[in-house]
Amino acid sequence: MAEQPVTVAVSTVIFGLQPPAEPRDDALGGLAVHLPLVQRVREPHLGRWALPGGPLHADESLREAARRNLAGTTGLRPTHLEQLYTFGAVERGVPATPEEPRVVSVVYWALVRTEVAATTVDDEHVAWFPAEDLPPLAFDHEEIVGWAVRRLKNKLEYTHLSHALLPEEFTLGQLREVHEAILGRRLDPANFRRRVEATGTVAPTGAHQAGVRHRPPALYRSTAREELLT
């Protein structure tokens, strides 16, 4: 019996923050976690939505493949990118014929700033969806998204990844809103401020948010952003 060929693909779960699709009654802020998906234009799973990705080229690293596939399918360039997991179960995506290769997927997850997530992708087959309300996905991509969401929430507790979702200057209220959107719960403003200031990862810019009446909040910059750029 001839061995079945194997090919390596690289896919990415990319997160950004956008206003929720519908008003919420959970007292959270005005942002929710979203991710871009690509609609398949061929079988299998024609018409279904899937994670952006593609094959690994022989002359590139996994990270290079992830960035290339992201730019080619969505036009997005992340502010943070790291490997999530390799999905290669034998029964995963069983090919229609023995001649078709079994696909092993190396999956990355990434972040883009909020202002980037707010832009419209100029492709009818690419769209942003709320992470908590995804359409039926191709292959095992629903499981993969679940892994990525859990990783994002876990790393938020002990890293400064939230800074990669913010512009160069931000208020502590905006930073708290990012944490609330990811964790799905309200955070006490005073406690959050004390915890953030204790980390030493933000520094006041000396400026204040424009267009706000009555004591505009101070603007900060991240002192840990260089650690996030990958």
UniProtKB/TrEMBL annotation:
Species annotation: Amnibacterium setariae
UniProt KW keywords: Hydrolase
Domain of life: Bacteria
Protein's name in the database: NUDIX hydrolase
Domain Nudix hydrolase per the UniProt entry, residue ranges: 5-151
GO MF, one annotated term: hydrolase activity
Signal peptide: none
Database matches in InterPro entries: NUDIX_hydrolase-like_dom_sf, NUDIX_hydrolase_dom, WH-like_DNA-bd_sf, WH_DNA-bd_sf, WHD_NrtR
